[in-house]
Design a protein that fits this description.
three-stranded antiparallel beta sheet; single chain; about 375 residues; alpha/beta; nine-stranded mixed beta sheet
């Protein structure tokens, strides 16, 4: 049975959004975590020249020194913005999908309705009968903009995802129901966190879908090489108050290079994605592969949903990287009940922003239904 925490009085505290296939509420959640972060060995950038020099050091063949000087414990409470949606359908699933977005986006990646509703993963999920919980990762959207050097790192964000999951499962988020099953869906850096979640806490997830992702990290350098721009200078109207450790790429063409596959997207979608992009942090760049990935105790189903022309995780062609001799993925999940790989054709890294996005959504939802979720 579900334990609904809805009431008229409670709902009046939240902003509701009516979809044709469900209803959503926006919530702000105080999340307290403890995690070990890496202490960076250099001071904050004073200008964009230093930021670009840092990126050059990261991507060059033989870096001259380690960017890390040690570790420290982080115990803090952050404000995390989330949207929780429930379907209208009578065939309502008892499963909620917890959605974690990647670098360059906020939670609107999952509900990208700026151009047309067919880009919305949330609406497709609601129509399939699932509830969703999408949140702004630390440093993005309406969530806390913490120190981008020593706080907004993969380990801290993993702790936030872990705590949010536990809060949902125990009914500690006002306005949200508890569910029988909890599925985690990630995109890109969000898939890094989702993979790591079941490595460190396998009991917290009943199934995972990893999109825009592989466990081969050798192809990141071309993307990282585009990211040496201070967000405060790149979009000053939006980000002038952000620290120098919040970075982004230069313009829509770099956005296209990293995230989209021409001609399989609407140029208006690219314009909207560029206008509404979110910066990422120096700490995230350094720690993206510094969390655990081997999920030897995890037994739930796993779907790798890759983009055919993903440059960031596959070097422009995921065939053989995600499903062949160069794939490390299957070995990380030796005990799972079902392991599947699907490569979405005519698609770049940002799967949800392509003409055929709904095809990928159907693959994801059919995978869950096949596994009783």
């Amino acid at each position: 049975m579900w334990n609904s925490c809805y009431s008229f009085a409670l709902l009046s505290l939240f902003s509701g959004v009516a979809f044709g296939s469900g209803k959503c509420i926006n919530v702000t959640i105080p999340v307290t975590i403890s995690a070990e972060s890496l202490t960076l060995a250099f001071p904050p950038f004073q200008n964009g020249y230093q930021a670009e020099a840092f990126i050059e050091e990261v991507v060059k063949r033989d870096p001259s020194s380690s960017p890390v000087s040690g570790t420290k414990n982080v115990t803090e409470t952050f404000s995390i913005s989330a949207q929780y949606c429930v379907p209208d359908t009578q065939k309502k699933s008892k499963t909620v999908q917890i959605l974690t977005h990647g670098l360059g986006f906020d939670k609107s990646y999952w509900d990208f309705t700026l151009i047309a509703s067919n880009y919305s993963y949330v609406q497709a999920v609601l129509q399939a009968g699932y509830s969703t919980f999408a949140y702004d990762r630390l440093g993005t959207g309406a969530s806390t903009k913490a120190d981008p050097y020593n706080i907004v790192q993969a380990s801290v964000e993993l702790a936030i995802l872990t705590e949010l999951t536990q809060m949902l499962q125990s009914g500690r988020i006002d306005g949200c129901e508890t569910h029988e099953k909890y599925v985690h869906v990630g995109h890109s850096f969000g898939s890094v966190l989702t993979n790591s979640l079941v490595a460190v806490a396998p009991h917290l997830s009943d199934g995972i879908i990893l999109t825009g992702y592989s466990n081969n990290f050798t192809f990141h350098l071309p993307f990282i090489s585009t990211t040496g721009h201070l967000a405060s200078e790149n979009q000053p109207a939006r980000f002038s108050d952000l620290s120098s450790g919040y970075l982004t790429w230069a313009d829509k063409y770099y956005n296209q290079f990293s995230f989209l596959s021409y001609p399989y997207f609407d140029p208006a979608v690219l314009e909207a994605a560029e206008d509404n992009k979110w910066p990422f942090t120096v700490g995230e760049i350094i720690t993206i592969s510094a969390v655990p990935f081997s999920a030897t105790q995890y037994k739930g189903p796993v779907l790798y949903l890759a983009a055919q022309s993903d440059y960031i995780f596959c070097g422009g062609d995921c065939t053989g990287i995600i499903d062949g001799p160069y794939s490390a993925s299957r070995a990380l999940f030796p005990a799972v009940s079902d392991f599947e790989v699907y490569i979405q054709p005519n698609t770049g890294h940002a799967i949800n922003l392509h003409y055929n996005a709904t095809g990928a959504y159907a693959v994801a939802n059919n995978f869950l239904k096949k596994n009783g979720l």
